[in-house]
Each structure stands twice: as C-alpha cells, then as structure tokens.
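Help!! Second protein's tokens look totally different from the first
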Amino acid sequence: MEVDVAVAGGALSMTVLGAGPALLMLHGWTLDRRMWRPQVDGLSAGATLLLPDRRGFGRSGAPPGLAREPDDIPALLDHAGLPSAVLVGHSQAGRVALTAAARYPDRVAGLILLAAPHDGVSIDPVAEPPLPLALLTERVRAGDLPAARALWRAHPMLRVADPVTARLLDDILGDYQGRDLLIPAQPLPVTDDLLAGITAPALVLVGDRDAPSRVQAADRLRRGLSGATMHMLLGAGHMANVSHADPCNRAIGEFLARHLR
C-alpha cells in the first residue's frame, strides 16, 4: 500500500507492507525506497515495513532539508498507527535515525545502522576520494543531470561488481533530481555526545569493503551506543543490503528476535 504522509511543507510518499514488528527504513543519499527491494523480499513475511521516500527524493513532494527529517519520523509513525518502530538508516540516513532516536526516544524501539557515518572519523583523501559535492552541485544548477548522475555513479563508494546491484543503482540514480543540492547544506552531526544520549538497542552493519571511514565509523558507533552490537558483512561494499541481502536480512531478523519478542 502506498500512502502520502503530511509533513512540514508537503508530503512524503511511503509504502507500507508486511506484518510483525515495525521497521521504518530510511534510504541513503541520492537513492529512494527501491533500495530496500531485497529486504521487502526477505523480511516482509515477519515484519511490517515502512518505506518512505525521504524529503527531496523519489516520489516525495516535501522540500529537501536534512535537518528537518528527524521531525518527520513521528508523522510517519502516526500515519501508520504505530507508537514506535525500529529505525533502519542507510549511509546519510543514519544521521536522521540517530538524531530521531535522541529526540524521540519513546518512538524509537531500536536502531539498525548500515554504512552510517560518524563525524569523529578522519578521512584519508588518498585512500578515499572525497564526495565531489561542489562539482555535482554545479552540474545540477546547470541543468545537466545526466552528467551529475554519472559523476556520482563513478565514485568508488558506488562501484559494485554484481550486476543485480548495478542495475538497481542505475535505475534509482536515473531518477535522482538533485533537489537537495540546490539548497544550503544542513548539517546533522553524529558525535559521541549524541550517541551517549541514545538508549535504544542498536545493530551496526557495515561491509568490510566499504569506504575505510565507514568501517571505522561502524566501530565508533558500536562503542558509542550503549549495548550496541556490530556485524561485519564480508565481501560487501556500501550497498551491502543489496549485494549481500541474505546475511544482511539474517542479521536484521536476529536483532528483531532478540529485542522485539
């Protein structure tokens, strides 16, 4: 079932399906809810999946704004008639999930963080080329979306070996409009102080072939979140939920069984 959920400034488009413990799944930057297709196949028989397109992405009409996204979480849950859910945040959306967990502890039953960042981790620009945000923004402002998409798709973080993941990425990025790049940056920092105030149980997932900073961030998140566990997905990169769907789904299912009986 696809629904439109009213939030500040517009609406978010969300798919709701499955039955069981609730997972509110937040896609990564430049992506949309389609990235969770392997989790729909693998988890919907035992969990209720809430799959929104975040502000500025996919079919959602609400204006982009990273700093506003944590406040969208209660609206999404209210629309589904749920008091709380486990938040699943991929990459940039890990910032949203963590901030929401600190801001709305009664609405967050748990956290699953996949390839999420931590701002205390330093990045070696030789080992890990920075995101070409300035050039991407320039291309979007010039109206050359194909060039912007190709530039980001070529970044090492999105290089994938298996054709299934590559096709899904190409399909999603083919619809990316770059709306979020046309507004001033809105930081949503992830710090040790933020983590210290979060009480929800947490699972940290990361591929061992993801960017070095994301592997280091996973360990920093594990240490900073009280009682968190970490699972390394061997042979997986930044899109581990697609390329290594079976072990990813097993880890999520075990977390739900352990914390949401």
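Here's the second one for comparison:
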Amino acid sequence: YKYIHNTYYFSTYYFKKNIIYDRAASNLPDKSELYKKLFPKEGANDIIIQSLNKVNAKYILVHKDKTNFFSDPLKEVKTTDYEDLFKKNNFTLEESSNEFNLYKNKEYLPIIYSEKSIQFRYINDAKYTIYLNNLKEKVNLTILINQNPNWKLYLVKNPSSSWCKPIEFYNNTQTTECQSSQKFFEGEELSYLYKKPIFDDTHKTVYGYANSWTIDADYIKSHYSKDYYKENSDGSIDIELVMYFKPQSYFYLGLIISATTLIGCIIYLIYDWRKNRKQGCLIKK
C-alpha cells in the first residue's frame, strides 16, 4: 500500500485512481463537498458509507490504533465499532493484523460502466478502449476518473471486441474488465490532434469528481456510416470507443520533434567531423 504525503504530481492528479485518507486526497480537490463529507467533524456513519461508495472505494485500510470515524476525537474507538459499521454496509474483512484491518467493498463499481453490457481495457494512463453492446437509445457512460474537459471520446471504425481477454466481471453493472495491453504508444495518438471527438457536448461531472457522457445510438446511425457500428438483428448497435486524454498527443509530438532534432544534430556533427578529417588528410598529403 502506498502511503501518500501532502504532495501532488501531475500524473497522479489527472490519471491515477482515487486514494482517500484523513490527511489528503489524491484526485479530489481539497475543497470538494464530497471530501468534506467523507471525514465529517461530527459523526455520521451513513455519510461515511455513502461517500466511500461515491468515490468508488474498493478497499478500506483501517489503522486499529489511530483511526476515529466518530464524532468525539477523544473517544476511544473499539475494533467492534468499525467492524460493525462495515459489516452492515457490504464490506468484507479481507486481511487482518495487529495494526490494520483491510476491508473490501462488495458494491465496488468498475472504473468504466454503463446501463448496457460493456467491455473495457486499460491501455495506459491516458487511453482506454471501450466496447458497448446492444445500444438502442441514449445511455450514460460513466468513467470514475478525475473529471477534466480534455478527456475525449472517439468512435472507432470497424468495431470489434476481439481485443478483450476478460479478467473480471462486475455483475452489478454487467461490465467486463479486459486484460490491459499497457502500451505507451500505439501509433494512432497523433491523429487525435485533428480528429473530432464524439458526444463532447454531453460531457459532464458526476459524483463531484468523475466523468460522464450520454451515448446516443440514433445519432451514431444518422451521422456515421455503417463502418462505425455493428447492427444487430433487433435493430440495436454495437460500437467501439477510445477514451483519450488529448494533451498526451502534444507530449508525443514534442518527443518526436525533440528526437528528430537530436538525431539531425548528431548526423550533422558526424558529417562535419568526417569532412574536416578528410580535409586534414588532403593538406598533409
């Protein structure tokens, strides 16, 4: 487990999963109403559980000798106090030691889900692949990553879910998480500098921190050719999307320009050195 200090990094703030604890919050603004409710000054067990669910906390690591979820900071907290709290709210005890208890939230949601059956795959911190099945009407696509307007959705041509190698199925949302490819660069990222994203006008904040888009099947069928969706016998469609953090393309472009410049300088220096060496040999002769 990572112990997070009061230090924030660009990659952590924009990309990593939420880590909530009683002295700081990665991926949540310090002034967020949700953050304030998560650790109330006055005891409110219902608020604590609701807030943990909103930030999609999968695991809760409790210090047996330090953590106080309750109203009186001087009150002695017994182990049974928080055991009862979590047991009553769909948390199971996974591991236990003299210093810690580790609880798992059985209502944990996948990082990406919708009202329809869905498969998703993590590519890297700036890119995810998503496959939505049997779309007939408008559905909400929710991404539990820190909200930022630079997250964009792009419709993929010739949709396919053949890339999905299932590693976990979330029955509560009918979502399949697929094995990550963990590629730094796939070659198409620079095209997102000029490609038009889809449903950008529906992009909004949910739960005080996360992203949501409204996916409209009728809009896709009326504005895109059949190359961009797979039509089923019942009239529904399957689509493939890429969720991408667009500023990453500028980073790749900068790397390419820097590398090209460096290689050009090295080639010039080698050429100049060989030219001077050749002229020196001619003078000696």
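Reply: Different proteins will give different token patterns, so don't panic. The CA atoms of residues 243 and 283 lie 63 Å apart.
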